[in-house]
Amino acid sequence: RVPMVTVKRLSRYLRALEKFQEKGFETVSSEELAGELNVKPSQLRKDLAYFGEFGTRGMGYSIPKLAEELRRILGLHRQWAIAIIGVGNLGTALLRYKGLNEKGFRIAALLDDDPEKVGSSRSGVHIFHIDDLPNLVKEKNIQIAILTVPAPAARAVADLAVKSGIKAILNFAPVSIKAPPDIAVMHVDISSELKILSHHLAELDLS
Amino acid sequence: RVPMVTVKRLSRYLRALEKFQEKGFETVSSEELAGELNVKPSQLRKDLAYFGEFGTRGMGYSIPKLAEELRRILGLHRQWAIAIIGVGNLGTALLRYKGLNEKGFRIAALLDDDPEKVGSSRSGVHIFHIDDLPNLVKEKNIQIAILTVPAPAARAVADLAVKSGIKAILNFAPVSIKAPPDIAVMHVDISSELKILSHHLAELDLS
Ligand SMILES: NC(=O)c1ccc[n+]([C@@H]2O[C@H](COP(=O)([O-])OP(=O)(O)OC[C@H]3O[C@@H](n4cnc5c(N)ncnc54)[C@H](O)[C@@H]3O)[C@@H](O)[C@H]2O)c1
Ligand SMILES: NC(=O)c1ccc[n+]([C@@H]2O[C@H](COP(=O)([O-])OP(=O)(O)OC[C@H]3O[C@@H](n4cnc5c(N)ncnc54)[C@H](O)[C@@H]3O)[C@@H](O)[C@H]2O)c1
After folding, report:
1. For the residues of A113-163, what is the DSSP string, one character each?
2. Residue B206: phi, psi to the nearest 5?
3. Domain B80-192 - what CATH class?
4. Beta-carbon pairs below 8 A across chains A and B
5. Cβ contact A201–B184 (<8 Å)
6. What ranges do the domains of chain A cover?
7. pLDDT per residue over B149-207, tens digit each?
8. What CATH number labels A4-73?
9. Which of B84, B85, B87, B90 to mutate to test the pocket of ligand 2 (most atoms within 8 A of CB)?
10. CA distance B85 to B113
């Protein structure tokens, strides 16, 4: 298996390639591409080597070819359906994020347990009741669940998602989700990112 | 310097300790505390060893004492002032997140460059024009900037923040921010977290 940090860098290499493409470049050297991510060219070559032979020594990489390869490796050559569970502040912000509605992703359903929200819609997407999740996963072939529910509800909602056939979870609640090994779970923990910053500030002893 | 992954675990140990405290526990063993994060007890002991001697062998840890130590190490014993720059979908969601207004953090100002937004307020916090950042950092002793501006604006806004005296940046825009070594910069890149999931789904070859 490829280390997660490598996969994270792949998506940043892809973003850098797309920016070079917008500026009209056809090829890019490993120094230029690695420089965009502040990594060494040897790291870029090591990352790509997990997936095969790309580019020719001394000639750099063909931008459209490498971008296409990275899209395939990242699974962006097809469209994955997403259910956002918990349509509060963060769920609503994510719904409007164009990163969820382009290149490989589509928001197929919103779910909540608040009777005031169920039955209405946000940005044109219908809000279903959380109990409908098993049917929706089958009907709409949903593979990804984004959890933006309060922390006390997160583990039960994740269990329901796994039972319904969801294969990948992006969890924003500050609690660790346990799932079977074939289910991918990513945590985005904004409050612990902030605490890294406050640890740094305390070290600088600013007062 | 302590590895960032260790600091991230510290904030998760603290959250687990607070949960045990809410349930009325006074002490906890390293097995129980490590288990909450799905890590080995030896990892917990290694993480804490960076900061000194905690707990007694065979007796476990005093929950209030260890929690207090972790708060001090994470810089939560004082309150850090935050400026949220870019009051759009994500900036507004973060403003309402209770994690930004408790234990060690306070939102001191909102900033934007949209004349329709400047001068109004959200959740009781005033929206200033981005050009006021240097004055606000001095007047309100702001140390942390959260960037929720579009990608093309992010680097210029980060440069202005650093020039204004900001010492820590949490960046949500999908572009890497370069800052001097004494400035801590954390990136939260939701779109690359999603691509790790689509890479996993492509590997399972679901179709
Ligand atoms: N707001 C932010 O910017 C932010 C930042 C970081 C982390 N988080 C985390 O994201 C989560 C959501 O935060 P928020 O600010 O959007 O909260 P919120 O209270 O605004 O929204 C939560 C939503 O989840 C719904 N819900 C509750 N239990 C449910 C269940 N069992 N099934 C389905 N829906 C359920 C609620 O009805 C509500 O609509 C929280 O865990 C929070 O800690 C939020
Ligand atoms: N919405 C999400 O859930 C989400 C998720 C992941 C990443 N992001 C990233 O977060 C950023 C914000 O996303 P959003 O959805 O909130 O966008 P948005 O367009 O809703 O909000 C952006 C805000 O920034 C302001 N702005 C633009 N240029 C500025 C400048 N130079 N100085 C100060 N303010 C400026 C705009 O006036 C607007 O209010 C983007 O970079 C986006 O890629 C958003």
Report:
1. S-TTTTT-EETTEEEEEGGGHHHHHHHTTEEEEEE-S-HHHHHHHHHHHHH
2. -75, 130
3. alpha beta
4. 188
5. yes
6. 4-73, 80-192
7. 999 999 999 999 999 999 999 999 988 898 999 999 999 989 889 999 999 999 887 64
8. 1.10.10.10
9. B90
10. 9
